[in-house]
Specification:
The chain has about 80 residues and is mainly alpha-helical. It has four helices and no strands. Helices cover about 80% and strands about 0% of the residues.
């Protein structure tokens, strides 16, 4: 288990699950825009986690984590009827 996390492959597994979920939801009629808002923030957070697990510099950790927040806000705005 230690090697799985030290290598970052634990995060890769989560990203693969998110990809399978995206494909499954797409086949059920979700638009790409909906999927980006729904799964995009999660994928960005997992990318930040992966960077942290492998000891990447701080900016490779903070960048995807920081980008997840505005994407999440855009999705919330769109779902609440405030966006097009």
């Amino acid at each position: 288990m230690e090697a799985l996390f030290r290598s970052g492959h634990a995060a890769d597994i989560v990203l693969a699950v998110l990809l399978v979920e995206a494909i499954w939801l797409r086949m059920r009629g979700f638009a790409w825009r909906d999927l980006a808002g729904l799964l995009g923030p999660a994928a960005l957070l997992v990318l930040g986690l992966r960077a942290a697990l492998v000891g990447a510099p701080w900016y490779w950790i903070s960048l995807p984590v920081a980008l997840a927040f505005p994407l999440h806000l855009l999705d919330l705005r769109r779902r609440s009827g405030g966006g097009a």
